[in-house]
Structures are given as C-alpha cells and as structure tokens.
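thought: fold this chain, then report.
action: predict
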Amino acid sequence: MRMVFAALMAAAALTVGATPASAAAAPHIDAVVYYTIYVKTGNVGDAGTDADVYIRLIGSAGTTGYIELDNPGDDRKRNQIDTYGPMPLSDLGTLREVRIAFEPEGGSPDWYLDWVKVDSSSGRSDLFPCYCWISGDSNTRIPRA
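observation:
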C-alpha cells in the first residue's frame, strides 16, 4: 500500500510550497503563509479510520506536495474534528481544491469524510465539503465550496 502512495508522490512534484512554472524563472522570495487544516470525520457508523491520510493543497499561486495528516493519539474518529498545523508554506494564493490520498490500514480501513477546512494567516478560510466514503487506495479530489 505504501507503494501506491509512493507512486502518487512521484507523480505529484512533491515540493511543499511549489510555485508555478512562470514564477520559477524569476528570482524572488516566497511569502510564507501559515496554514491550519481542519478535518471533520462524519457521524455515521464506522466513520472513523486507522488509515494513513495525506493532503495536497492546490491554489492559484502554487501547489504543495502530499502532507501526512497525523497527530499524536487517535486521529479521524467518528464525529471528530482534527486540527493540523499551523504549518508554514509558500503562499498558495486562492485555494481551488484539496486532494486526499488514502492508504487503508488496520481494523477500520474506510473513512467517512464530512469536510476539510483550511485557514491561512493571510485571513482566508476555505471549506471543501466531501460528505462521502473514502475507501481503497484512493486519491480523492475535493473542490472548494
């Protein structure tokens, strides 16, 4: 299963805070923005998961690589909101979508994801509603609401 994620990472140009190609040629200093990611697991039976979960933020000014969402203790339990960050990244501009990479593991391999919310130190707050089951080795695209 880690091989699936490795393939996703290899295909995704894994530079956290990557800049668009047009900006890469010009010398500049990337503005640092702190992003906090909130993930809400649904309130349905067996909604939680033991799987490894990764997120990729896609914005108008750049894209991150896949970032593992993992806190000490139990993440992604039924009806729970998990917080990740704040994490310093290059300014991604207006977020357009997030992608969830999912590697099922343990006794609860499937996951019911309600939504992802991303707040930034630049004052933006973006909601990405999902309200669906994520299962199997997947790479789920979630556009902004």
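thought: worth noting. The CA atoms of residues 66 and 131 lie 21 Å apart.
final: tokens above.
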